[in-house]
Amino acid sequence: MVKVKPFAAIRPPKELVEEVAARPYDVLNSEEARKEAGEKSLLHITKPEIDFDPIANEHSEEAYAKAVENFKAWKERGWLRQDGKECYYLYAQTMGKRTQYGFVLCAHTDDYASGVIKKHELTRKDKEDDRMIHVRIQNANIEPVFFAFRDDAELDEIIRSVAAGKPEYDFVAEDGFGHHFWVIDDDALISRISAAFNGRVDAFYVADGHHRTAAAARVGAEKKSQNPAHDGTEEYNWFMAVCFPQSQLKIIDYNRVVKDLAGLSEEEFLNALGEDFEVKLESKPRCGRPAKPWSPDALHVFSMYLGGRWYSLKTREGRYDDNDPVGVLDVTILSNLVLDRILGIKDLRTDRRIDFVGGIRGLGELARRVDSGEMKVAFALYPVSMDQLINIADSGNIMPPKTTWFEPKLRSGLAIHSLDEFKH
């Protein structure tokens, strides 16, 4: 079973939350962050390079030092304050008509090492190292990781009861997403939540934040090795996560655009596709108007934009193995039968001929990238399901790169977890 505990969050007063809270560090480049960051924004802590003119190297010693300076200043100014007791928190996000609810809590670093916290993507050491530096220098988890867990009836009931009360924070961010946050400080309810997770939830699944999870676990192991008096009760054994019941989450598509057809003409490329797919023209330009976007409507069916036209690609029988949890994924089918076999793209992580577009940007972005001449062809995929993600993680397999896209992203700055011992 997983190990969880409450923690005393460092967080903004409710009247400042909209000014402090920010989008995650990895969804903005430095220029975008500088434009977006107000005086009190957490971006001055998560992307401190924006405080220099010109913008500093984000991995420089001066940027890291500025991050520490800013975190200290935000606490001294009262823009961030620590709660007086260890609590659980409920965090909800609204996108359109859908709201998802997750518990903000501390997960245990040992669970990552033992595989109770399960991953579905590979991590890169350089990215782990960068996140590890931020945790180490701040002695805190400034931004949470994003976990899923199998539904539990009692935890679902607790979510409903807490959400029926008035939230501590309740605002709509500039991107149109709603953010709602409740403090769970009742001792009896805290005990129920701990007992439910520690007694029945057998695994956490990393939805987003593989590098932050790995970095937190490495910092915990590092501090353990440096502490001859380590007894397992230290706060550095824990890190902050937002954990959502599986049924609350929806994965959206993560699409591909490719720069060229590897020397093939459009006709030759379409013929080559015909070996493994039923290729059908779905829409084309009419009366001076661009072709109407066509979205895949089932697994193993792809949408392709080529030469101003939208095509459907239905995978022929026998081209994939339903019993292979990785081989049955549409990202694998597309990679094997199109990107590799026809276009010669062997490594999605390193090949510069391919790029990836989150489904939140819509099919219009795929058409724009092709129509501009920047790319030659675009592919839209049917989204991976949470069941597929869990099956991959449970089997110990790894998904291909850029398979899952979760939206909305967790808002940073609603809660921070200090690795210092909490003084009751």
Shape: globular
Q: How far do the termini sit from each other?
A: 28 Å
For the CA atoms, what is the radius of gyration? 23 Å
Helix coverage percent of residues? 25-40%
**Total DSSP E strands:** 21
Largest sheet: 9 strands, mixed
Beta-strand fraction estimate: 15-25%
Structural class: alpha+beta
Averaged pLDDT, please? 94
Low-confidence stretches: none
Helical run tally: 13
Overall description:
The chain contains 13 helices and 21 strands. It has 424 residues and is an alpha+beta fold. The strands form 5 sheets. Strands 1, 4, 5, 6, 8, 9, 10, 11 and 12 form a 9-stranded mixed beta sheet that branches. It has a 6-stranded antiparallel beta sheet with strand order 15-17-16-19-14-18, sandwiched between helices. Strands 2-3 form a two-stranded antiparallel sheet.
What secondary-structure arrangement, pairings included, does this model have?
Elements: E1 4-5, E2 10-11, H1 17-20, H2 30-36, H3 43-46, H4 61-76, E3 81-82, E4 88-95, E5 98-108, H5 109-114, E6 117-118, H6 125-138, E7 140-141, E8 145-149, H7 153-163, E9 169-172, E10 178-184, H8 187-200, E11 204-208, H9 210-226, E12 238-245, E13 251-252, E14 254-258, H10 266-273, E15 277-283, E16 301-306, E17 309-315, H11 330-340, E18 354-358, H12 363-371, E19 377-380, H13 386-394, E20 405-406, E21 417-418
Parallel strand pairs: 6-11, 8-12
Antiparallel strand pairs: 1-5, 2-3, 4-5, 4-10, 5-12, 7-21, 8-11, 9-10, 13-20, 14-18, 14-19, 15-17, 16-17, 16-19
Helix pairs in contact: 4-6, 6-9
